[in-house]
Amino acid sequence: MTTSSKSLGDWFKDFEREAFRLETLDDYSQSGGVDAYQAFLAGKPQPEEYKTAGWVRTVSDAVQAGKRIYRVHVLARPLTDYLRFELSWGYIRNMAAGEEFFILDTTSQGNPVPEAPDFWMFDDQTIGAMKYDGEGKYLGVDFISEDKRPEFRRYRDTAMASAVPFPEWWAQYGE
Prior knowledge:
globular; alpha/beta
């Protein structure tokens, strides 16, 4: 672990080429969009503030500047309620802003990156390992030292090689 003079939010403004995310959890329900998640569970429409959340602007601004934001989510079916929400509301919303999504479905195959934590990687250099509690609440980020870069690049490359584009996966397994 190391520190960064920048926050995770700063990196979203300052990265130059690409931001990659590996998601490994089935539940992030305490980390943001809690009201939208509750609306989803209740069968209500998406709240306006969810449709226009700050993340949508962050993605849109980055993509319009020629940058790439993409992620792989490691998951298995059947989907948790939270994953149904995240994929059907969040991913669809964020794709419209230009974010790219890939699914590494471990339902009928082993996880090729079982030891990988959730993380963001900016420009193939700066790595922020995400910390969550058992209830899906975000606890912060640890910036990873330079000597760990090859390991995290391997996680990214292996996950991408085993994942399929979200639209393709969703057409087959979406609910």
